[in-house]
Amino acid sequence: MSSYCPVALEILMNMDAHTPTKREVDALQQDLLLLRKENETLRFLLQAMTTKCNTLEQLIREKNIQRHDQFPVAQKTTQFLVRTDSKDNTLIVKDGYQWRKYGQKVTKDNPSSPRAYFKCSLSPRCPVKKKVQRCMVDKSVLVATYEGEHNHDAINGSPLGKFCCSSSTADHNNNNIIINPINYASHGTSANINNNDVINIVSPSNSSRPVPITLDLTLSGSTSNQQNNGSAGSPQNSSSCAQNINCESRLEDYVAYLTKDHNFTQTLAAAVASSITRPSADRQNQ
DNA sequence: CGCGTTTGACCTGCGC
DNA sequence: GCGCAGGTCAAACGCG
Fold first, then answer.
1. A173: which residues sit within 8 A by CB, 6+ positions away?
2. Is there a contact between A132 and A142 (Cβ–Cβ < 8 Å)?
3. SS3 breakdown of chain A: % helix, strand, coil, rounded to 5?
4. What is the Cα–Cα distance from A99 to A130, expressed in whole angstroms?
5. Between the CA of A101 and the C1' of B3, what is the distance in angstroms?
6. Residue A100 approaches strand C within 7 Å at CB
């Protein structure tokens, strides 16, 4: 847990002894704000891991069904995170294809930024659709969800449009930074795609200069293999994965990595405990 | 004038 | 059956 807790505790312990000064009240309010932020982030993380578990279970069930009954291969759904200029309010992801916007909708899970719907207009019969929405956690990140596969080439052969996986790739042609490709075999369950699968965590061990960590909480293995086989993709850029947690490893690797991280387990445990013990207090504050 | 965007209306699926 | 939310349509509008 972060270093501000003992300070707040000390002030709280001495509350009865004397009237708190304005400085102490400010410090407490600051701590409360930080704790709320941290709590919020960890709730997202917990929710994302639950979603991931459900998705994995669903995938296993469907794999078992496929083994007995040869279903046709489902349409591919791929999600990218694209870092843009935070001052840029447009929902444009320059990916080498030409898109026609056909709708925009405010969604319940992220009411502050509407979701834009695009169809590929490079080829009249191209079935690919794209949904773009700002990330709820980091407004400078666009979440672009592609459905289907292009039946033609891109204008400039951009890796993003081709669904080639390259984590944290700089799209030099278009001034976008592709943070993370997230792959789904939707199997007709597009409801599995959830913004909660993308989380930026501010490292609690370095509160002076927060380092955002992007978790790729997607299923790897079969789905990503399928993707790599299906496109002329470039290999994973291992060096650029430095801030990503093992983009290509399996779920077990994520769990192993996270459980080995002492800071993470401590923070998660504290957050869960806090969520259990303080829900009424949170409600009162809202 | 043509093309792309905007936006309200409509459709559809899902949960209760 | 009803309500809600996500997705799509299409008329209106703006811009080059």
1. A94, A96, A156, A158
2. yes
3. 40, 20, 40
4. 8
5. 12
6. no
A105 touches strand B (CB under 7 A): yes
What is the predicted pLDDT for the residue at A266?
55
Nucleotide nearest to A145 (CA to C1'): C7
Please answer whether residues A82 and A178 qualify as being in contact, where contact means their C-beta atoms are separated by less than 8 angstroms.
Answer: yes
The two structure tokens encoding residue A189: 């369950």
Using an 8 Å Cβ cutoff, are A178 and A60 in contact?
A: no
| φ, ψ at A150 (rounded to 5°) | -65, 140
Question: Which contiguous run of DSSP H or E holds residue A147?
Answer: strand A141-147
pLDDT band at A246 (very low <50, low <70, confident <90, very high): very low
pLDDT(A170) > 50: no
Is A229 strand, coil or helix?
helix
Give the list of residues 6+ apart from residue A140 with CB closer than 8 angstroms, or none.
A83, A84, A85, A86
| Structure-model confidence comparison of residues A83 and A115, the more confident one | A115
- Count CB atoms within 10 A of the CB of residue A51: 17
Amino acid at position A69, single letter: D
Residue A46, pLDDT > 50, answer: yes
Nucleotides of C under 7 A from a protein CB: 4-10
**pLDDT of A195-204, one tens digit each?**
333 333 333 3
Question: In this model, does residue A63 exceed pLDDT 70?
Answer: no
pLDDT tens digits, residue range A208-233? 333 333 333 333 333 333 333 333 33
Question: Which residues make Cβ contacts (< 8 Å) with residue A275, sequence separation at least 6?
Answer: A39, A43
Instruction: Say what the pLDDT of residue A86 is.
Output: 59
